[in-house]
UniProtKB/TrEMBL annotation:
Subcellular location: Cytoplasm
Gene3D superfamilies xrefs: 3.10.50.40
This protein's name: Peptidyl-prolyl cis-trans isomerase
EC top class, as a word: isomerase
InterPro entries: PPIase_dom_sf (IPR046357), PPIase_FKBP_dom (IPR001179)
Primary location: cytoplasm
Reported function: Also involved in hydrogenase metallocenter assembly, probably by participating in the nickel insertion step. This function in hydrogenase biosynthesis requires chaperone activity and the presence of the metal-binding domain, but not PPIase activity.
PANTHER family per record: FKBP-TYPE PEPTIDYL-PROLYL CIS-TRANS ISOMERASE SLYD
Record keywords, A-Z: Chaperone, Cytoplasm, Isomerase, Rotamase
Native source species: Arcicella lustrica
Catalytic reaction annotation: [protein]-peptidylproline (omega=180) = [protein]-peptidylproline (omega=0)
GO molecular function ontology, one term from the record: peptidyl-prolyl cis-trans isomerase activity
EC number per UniProt: 5.2.1.8
Family statement: Belongs to the FKBP-type PPIase family.
Length: 143
C-alpha cells in the first residue's frame, strides 16, 4: 500500500484536543481536511504525523507547542488605557476582537485577557500558542 509522503494531496478526518481532553476542533460531521503534505499548509507536527500513514490507518499524534503554534510570545500582549477604546466596542475577558494594525490596513484577531478599572489587556497570540496538542487522525485518501 502507498504511504503518504511530501507532495501528496491527502484527505484526513481528525479531532484535535488539549492535554486536558478539551476538543478544540474536529472534522466529525464535515468534509475531510484536504491539503498537500509537506508544504506547510498545516502545523508541522500534524504534517509530520501523517507522513508514512497508509489509507485507512488511524493514529494519535502528540504535538508539543513548539511544533504546533509555538510558545506564548509576551511581545504579543498589549495593555491599553480604557479611555483609548471606543465606547461603542463592548469587551469582556475571553472576548475576541479585531484590531487594525497601524497603516497597513490589516486586521489582527486579539483576545481580551484582562480588564481592570483603567486598562484592558489584549493578546494577539494564537489561541493555541503555548499548548501541547493531541490529534486523532484517520487517513482517508491519498490523491
Amino acid at each position: 500500500m502507498a504511504q503518504a509522503k511530501a507532495g501528496d494531496k491527502v484527505n484526513v478526518h481528525y479531532t484535535g484536543r488539549l492535554t486536558d481532553g478539551t476538543v478544540f476542533d474536529s472534522s466529525a460531521g464535515r468534509e475531510t481536511l484536504e491539503f498537500e503534505l509537506g508544504t506547510g499548509m498545516v502545523i508541522k507536527g500534524f504534517d509530520d504525523g501523517i507522513a508514512g500513514m497508509i489509507i485507512g490507518e488511524k493514529k494519535t499524534v502528540h504535538i508539543p507547542a513548539e511544533e504546533a503554534y509555538g510558545p506564548v510570545n509576551p511581545d504579543y500582549l498589549a495593555v491599553f488605557p480604557k479611555a483609548e477604546i471606543p465606547a461603542d466596542i463592548p469587551y469582556e475577558v475571553g472576548m475576541q476582537l479585531n484590531m487594525h494594525q497601524d497603516g497597513s490596513g490589516q486586521v489582527m484577531p486579539v483576545t481580551v485577557t484582562e480588564v481592570t478599572e483603567t486598562t484592558i489587556t489584549l493578546d494577539a497570540n494564537h489561541p493555541l500558542a503555548g499548548k501541547d496538542l493531541i490529534f486523532d487522525i484517520e487517513l482517508v485518501a491519498i490523491g
